[in-house]
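Lab meeting, item 3. Inverse folding demo.
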C-alpha cells in the first residue's frame, strides 16, 4: 500500500512549481520564459506532445494500412512497476526482431508506453499503444505478445484499424493526472500524489515514444530532467513594446507586472477549476 512519499524526483517536482513563473518581455513586445521540462508539467507536456505529433504523424499518415494494437499485462503493485516496464520494453524489442527475422514481415511501428492507476485496488496498469504498418504485422505482434506473456488475456489485447481517433489515443498524455472521483463519477479529482510518483519514478529515463523500424524522434524529450526548450519565445506578443518582467501570481491566476499591477492575460478560471485547485491544494499540503 502506498503510504508515504520518499522520492528521488523531489528536486524535479519543486522545479515544476517555477515553470514559466517569470516571463521577460523585450522592447518589441516579445515574451520569453523558461520551462522545467518535466513530464508531469502540463505546460511542458503540451510542448512535448506537439513536437511528437509534428515529428511522427506525417510519417505514420503515409502508411497505406496502419493498425492500432494495445499489448497489455495484468495490473501490478507499485514495487513491481519499474521492473515490469523494463521487461515489457525488452520483450517488445525481441518481438519486433522475431517478426522481421522469423515471420519475414516488415516491422514499422510507432510505440508509446503508458500507465494508468486503479485506485480501487491500488495497482498499476502499464501497457503499450502501437501503430503498426499492415494487418499481418499486427496479428503477428499480438500472437507473439501472448506467447511471451501467458498471463495476458486475449480479449484485453485491443487490435483495430487505425483512424484519426486512434492516432489521438497514441499522442495523448502517458498517464492521467485527473481521474474520476469514487463518490461522484461525474466529478473529477487529481490522481493521488503517491501513485503519480510511482509512475513517474518507474518511467524515469525510459522513452515514452519510440519509432521502430523507421527513423524519427524528438531529441531530448524522454528524460524528466531534460528541458523542453530551456528558453524559448512564447506565442504571446504584448501590445506594449517595452521591457517588462511578468511574475506569476497563483492567487490571481495570471502573470503580473509588479511595477504597474497590470495582468498579462486576464484569464479567469471557471468555478469548476477553482474548486479542483482549492480542494486538491489543501489535500497535497499533507505531503509538503
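The presenter then showed the designed sequence:
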Amino acid at each position: 500500500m502506498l503510504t508515504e512519499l520518499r522520492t528521488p524526483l523531489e528536486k524535479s517536482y519543486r522545479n515544476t512549481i517555477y515553470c514559466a513563473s517569470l516571463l521577460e518581455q523585450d522592447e518589441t513586445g516579445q515574451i520569453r520564459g523558461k520551462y522545467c521540462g518535466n513530464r508531469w508539467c502540463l505546460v511542458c507536456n503540451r510542448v512535448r506532445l506537439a513536437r511528437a505529433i509534428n515529428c511522427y504523424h506525417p510519417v505514420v499518415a503515409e502508411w497505406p494500412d496502419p493498425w492500432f494494437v494495445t499489448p497489455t499485462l495484468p495490473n501490478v503493485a507499485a514495487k513491481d512497476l519499474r521492473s515490469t516496464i523494463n521487461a515489457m520494453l525488452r520483450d517488445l524489442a525481441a518481438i519486433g526482431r522475431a517478426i522481421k527475422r522469423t515471420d519475414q514481415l516488415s516491422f514499422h511501428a510507432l510505440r508509446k508506453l503508458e500507465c494508468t492507476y486503479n485506485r480501487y485496488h491500488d495497482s498499476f496498469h502499464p501497457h503499450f499503444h502501437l501503430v503498426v504498418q499492415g494487418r499481418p504485422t499486427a496479428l503477428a505482434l499480438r500472437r507473439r505478445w501472448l506467447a511471451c506473456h501467458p498471463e495476458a488475456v486475449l480479449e484485453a489485447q485491443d487490435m483495430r484499424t487505425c483512424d484519426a481517433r486512434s492516432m489521438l489515443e497514441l499522442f495523448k498524455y502517458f498517464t492521467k493526472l485527473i481521474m474520476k472521483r469514487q463518490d461522484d463519477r461525474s466529478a473529477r479529482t487529481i490522481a493521488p500524489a503517491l501513485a503519480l510518483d510511482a509512475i513517474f519514478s518507474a518511467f524515469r529515463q525510459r522513452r515514452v515514444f519510440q519509432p521502430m523500424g523507421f527513423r524519427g524522434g524528438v531529441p531530448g524529450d524522454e528524460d524528466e530532467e531534460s528541458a523542453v526548450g530551456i528558453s524559448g519565445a512564447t506565442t504571446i506578443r504584448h501590445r506594449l513594446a517595452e521591457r517588462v518582467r511578468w511574475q506569476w501570481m497563483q492567487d490571481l491566476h495570471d502573470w503580473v507586472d509588479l511595477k504597474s499591477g497590470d495582468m498579462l492575460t486576464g484569464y479567469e478560471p471557471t468555478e469548476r477549476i477553482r474548486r479542483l485547485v482549492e480542494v486538491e491544494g489543501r489535500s497535497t499540503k499533507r505531503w509538503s
